[in-house]
Amino acid sequence: MNKDDKILVAGATGMVGSAIVRNLKAKGYTNILTPDRKRVNYTDQHNTHFYMDCVRPDYVFLAAARVGGIMDNATHAADYIRDNLRIQTNLIDSSYKVGTKKLLFLGSSCIYPKHANQPMTEDQLLSGYLEPTNQSYALAKIAGIQMCQSYHKQYGFNAISLMPTNLYGPNDNFDHNSSHVLPAMVSKFSGAMKRSKHYEVTLWGDGSARREFLHVDDLAEACYVCMQEYDKPDIINVGTGEDVTIKELAEIVAGVVKYDREIKWDTSKPNGTPRKLLDVSKIKSLGWSPKIELEDGIRSTYEWYKENE
Q1: Of 144, 125, 133, 132, which is closest to residue 63 (Cα–Cα)?
Q2: Which terminal residue of the chain, N or C, has fewer Cβ atoms less than 10 Å from its own Cβ?
Q3: What's the whole-number average pLDDT of the chain?
Q4: pTM of the model
């Protein structure tokens, strides 16, 4: 990418999209398109194609998606598969048709089987059953991967697919009814400290599930590196290569927020996939590695949350 190339960041107001925009601006890119939903609705085929035909971006970062935690995935499964299929189908197809040089599609580590070998290598895709609680979202993302690979094979369209692990950072969704686990903890622990001194936080599951967490600014740098250096249709994982139990995560978040009460666990609720750890040797071979330590990242995220809640 040249500094004056026209670059579309689809989903620029979200956590991932805004991080990609920050990264590009810091590197001196000056022609970044960041339309909001009032300008273009990516779930609408005609609207998306019309917008793309008007702006004709050289490069596209496809960070637009409907995302959420276990509860939201489980209760709105139809919305997740419908909206994500529409968004990615419209953007991938229209990008190809208007002559975009390269598109980067962001999937998710939830594409891998529930009982995949750990750490999860890219070749384990479609090797087993998915985690039921987010199966609709995962299937939509798998379809996006297949679409990128099919357009590459049939049309020679340079579309690459990155599979990030669990993300967190500024501009995340902190609504503990619909958010992912880490921002939900930040919201719950912080809210508890504003209530009665006897108020205690209850979390889902038993805390034994293991998860890997990557700061969104590290992901943004990985996206930039891959947009510059990676041109294969094969998927590529993006993570830290290290994980913690949900109980350990809760203790870290509680320490940052200064929550000093008991943490209760509702074992009637699901743990989700037992473990999700990515093999990241492939992306590290491109020269990328994460820079932000988990506790430091949680601390800066909490500071952002306090300033913006």
Answers
A1: 144
A2: C
A3: 95
A4: 0.95
Rounded CA separation 141/215 (Å): 21
Take residue 72 and report the two structure tokens written for it.
């939201």
CA distance linking residue 80 with residue 71, whole number of Å: 12
3-state secondary structure the chain: CCCCCCEEEECCCCHHHHHHHHHHHHCCCCCEECCCCCCCCCCCHHHHHHHHHHHCCCEEEECCCCCCCHHHHHHCHHHHHHHHHHHHHHHHHHHHHCCCCEEEEECCHHHCCCCCCCCECHHHCCCCCCCHHHHHHHHHHHHHHHHHHHHHHHHCCCEEEEEECEEECCCCCCCCCCCCHHHHHHHHHHHHHCCCCCCCEEEECCCCCEECEEEHHHHHHHHHHHHHHCCCCCCEEECCCCCEEHHHHHHHHHHHHCCCCCEEEECCCCCCCCEECECCHHHHCCCCCCCCCHHHHHHHHHHHHHHHC
What tokens appear for 36 in the block? 């909001």
Tell me the residue type at 66.
R
pLDDT at 176: 73
Contact 173, 15 (CB under 8 A): yes
Candidates 59, 112, 137, 259; catalytic one: 137
| pLDDT of 194 | 85
Q: How far apart are CA 22 and CA 39, in angstroms?
A: 21
* Tokens 């297949």 -> residue: 146
| Annotated catalytic residue 112 | no
Residue that is written with structure tokens 């960070």 in the block: 63
33-57 pLDDT, tens digit per residue, is: 999 988 999 999 999 999 999 999 9
